[in-house]
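COMPLEX REQUEST
Ligand: guanosine-5'-diphosphate
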Amino acid sequence: MAVERTLSIIKPDATRRNLTGRINAKFEEAGLRIVAQKRIRLTMEQAGTFYAVHKERPFYGELCEFMASGPVVVQVLEGENAIAKNRDVMGATNPAEAAPGTIRAEFAQSVGENSVHGSDAAETAAVEIAYFFSGLELVG
Ligand code: GDP
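STATUS: Structure written out below.
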């Protein structure tokens, strides 16, 4: 299995409830290494660019407003099969459908305010990591 990197975001609903440490513990317990991390506040425009793939979806405006509503923690996770492994640790988009023990099952508040983002494929991971981090900021 290949060592991969994936982009993770701890969303405003989770930073607001002081859950950063508990969420990071889930990543580390699963064998994912946090090789870059910073707490930032996205503007509406930055959130809109990040989620441009969802531009035509009915929830796009709501999603951008939510992502700009408070601090987020953007991070790069590294490990064997990191992209799929992180998606497993996150759980399903809708917390009502998320498997027990996953981040979204334990912490998410709704399908929109669902605590974490994770890249869904190698190509998107590369683009998403480069959106937030320079190579110098990735310390494996
Ligand atoms: P993910 O890859 O599991 O995060 O899910 P998607 O790529 O399908 O959706 C991206 C994000 O849009 C989700 O994590 C949610 O925050 C948000 N989202 C998805 N579906 C809905 C919805 O029906 N309503 C709202 N308000 N937000 C949604």
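REMARKS: DSSP finds seven helices and four strands in the chain. The two ends are 18 Å apart (CA to CA).
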